[in-house]
Fold this protein.
Amino acid sequence: MNITKFKKPFVLTVLFFLPVLFLLFLYPSKHNYKTLDIIKKDIPELSNFVTKNGTPIQLDNHLTVLGFLGQTPMDDAILALNLKELVYDKFRGFKRFQIVILVPESAKNQVELLEKELNQYEFLEYWKFGFGTDAEVIAAYQALKISTVLDSKLNTSDVFIIDKERHQRGRLDDRNKNQITNKAPIYGLSSYDCLEVTVLKNKMSEDMRILFTEYRQKRKGNFNSTSRRADDLKGDEKN
């Protein structure tokens, strides 16, 4: 029997199926899938805010990254550029994804300059600036679960994740494995600092990926509404 006759087809078959098996192992299942925690429910719709063209800003049925760049957004262009490169560029192809930056009406000229900077290489179709009064900006910020305050120019380096049902998402327990093992006090994560590149690259990118996976599972009918992270937190409180 000529063994070499069967050797080539066997090798080709193995090479074909190995990547398939690898992807099957990576594919998240409903048994080990962790949802992203709801930090605060029913964030008010941004009906008072409009784009420069007068189009109303809408949170409903969108996966939104919400930010506040205040009266002088060009002064904090680095925040916007970090957000573009590390979050927008990664998730712009996902359905219903948008970045919304709320600014007071007095910032329109500065926004035009910042848009030129952001759109230097391509038009950011899913990036919107929403204009409102100073009071409306403050009210929108205070409606969130927050750990910081807006500065005197109505600016913050923090951004927030809002889901399609207008719930704020984040982490009820942001401890790492070592902290959990050592029973460190529980602390959460309700916002993501755009000045911290590692936070955007690691924590926020991971949390956005989890949220998009959650909605994909919902469409397929495989979604388990139990949040494993919340369950782990409850279990830890009992110990």
Notes: The first helix runs from residue 4 to 26. Residues 70 and 151 are 8 Å apart (CA to CA).
